[in-house]
Amino acid sequence: MTNLIDLRSDTLTRPTPDMRAAMARAEVGDDVYGEDPTVRALEERVAGLFGHEDALFTPTGSMANVLAVRTLVGPGEEVLCESSAHIARAELGAHAAYTGLTMRTWSHPRGGVDLPAVERMFAPDMGPFFVRTKAVSVENTHNFAGGTVLPLADLDALHAFTSAQGIGLHVDGARIWNAHVATGTPLSAYGARAEVMAVCLSKGLGAPVGSLVVGSAEAMAESRVWRKRMGGGMRQVGILAAAGLHALDHHVERLAEDHEHARLLAEACGVDPEQVETNIVVLERSDAAELVEAASAEGIRISTVGPRTVRLVTHLGIDREDAQRAATVLAKLTS
Ligand SMILES: *Cc1c(COP(=O)(O)O)cnc(C)c1O
Fold it and tell me: Which residues of the chain register pLDDT less than 70?
């Protein structure tokens, strides 16, 4: 029996021995008192990478997104986003449930920005008549669109619009590291085009747990209160922050390997590898469920993210040999 090759998600990574050693060594304190030095080091480092004043460690990316968006949008106000955005589709309505905001969406085949649609939807303060738009949210890279990178020029144009209207721009950067490695765009360039961001350490970077909100000192102070209110105040959590620091030191540049493996899988499945920018391959298949089943029987785990959509994700736990074996099996099953 050969090893199972798990391509369902890049959240499936397990901490490496070196990462575990870093976690074991971590200096810790009570982070609700602001006394965990490892958490502070991580927050300061990530804030610095994106050129923002501060950052806040959270247990999940979903919590980071809820906290981030709520610094810009209040109850009864709206955020505009793409229709398959994680905040709209995959956070179980958290933004509505916790913040009480509403969303309106545009659709884009690659999960990108449709600026004319945003301009049409944007609603300024019209008193007691219409829901007021307070922010626009974009995802980079875009998960359900297949790990697509949001072109910097599009982000730039959107940010020029939101700034001119006096509203905020939120970037769900769960996989911003992949966009950075795929394009060479500095993280600070992404940071400069957002009021607030959410970034994950627990996807391709391979940390077991952890995300951060990134933004102004004021927004982070407010988010610290809301994090506690939501039950996300953690104590000696430097053990987890140490995993994040280790990931930033050792697991960012290697994302290029994941991207290469994803292109290899795409080619095997008859998807144009040129369309695969990062670590996610999406297949449109009428036999989606059967393909998942057949792959599983051969030790390759993949998953559906829609009735006719199959998703393959490469990550730290997949080496060249795994990718090649998966490609051979999937080429046979999809031919
Ligand atoms: C995974 C992910 C998140 C956060 O997910 P959690 O499971 O809550 O950590 C947010 N946005 C995108 C695009 C994601 O892929």
Answer: 1-2
Helix/strand/coil for 30:
coil
Ligand 1 near 174 CB (within 6 A): yes
Partners of 254 in beta bridges? none
Which residue's CA lies nearest to atom 5 of ligand 1?
Answer: 61
- For residue range 59-74, what is the model confidence (pLDDT) as tens digits? 999 999 999 999 999 9
For 202-232, the DSSP string reads SSTT--SS-EEEEE-HHHHHHHHHHHHHTT-
What are the angstrom distances between the C-alpha of 51 and each of 121, 186, 295? 30, 10, 43
- Determine how β-strand 309-313 pairs with β-strand 303-306: antiparallel
196-200/168-173 β-pairing: parallel
Ligand 1 touching residue 86 (CB < 6 A): yes
Write the pLDDT tens digit of every residue in 31-55.
Answer: 999 999 999 999 999 999 999 999 9
Counting from 1 in the atom list of ligand 1, the atom nearest the Cα of 172 is 11
By alpha-carbon position, which residue is closest to atom 4 of ligand 1? 61
Q: Chain-centre distance of CA 241, in angstroms? A: 18
Say which DSSP state 184 is in: -
Closest CA to 47 of 205, 229, 219: 219
Q: Which of 80, 129, 126, 121 is nearest to 102 (CA)?
A: 80
The radius of gyration computed from the CA coordinates of the chain, to the nearest angstrom, equals 20
Distance 174 CA to ligand 1 centre (A): 6
Query: Hey, what domains does the chain have and what are their CATH numbers?
Result: 17-250 (3.40.640.10), 254-334 (3.90.1150.10)
User: Is the minimum distance from the CB of 139 to ligand 1 under 6 angstroms?
Assistant: yes
Question: 127 Cβ partners below 8 Å, 6+ apart?
Answer: none
137 lines ligand 1 (CB under 6 A): no
Q: How far is the CA of 44 from the centre of ligand 1 (A)?
A: 22
66 C-beta closer than 6 A to ligand 1: no
Calculate how far, in angstroms, residue 128's C-alpha sits from the geometric centre of ligand 1.
35
Mutate which of 86, 148, 230 for ligand 1? The one with the most ligand atoms within 8 Å of its CB, which is: 86
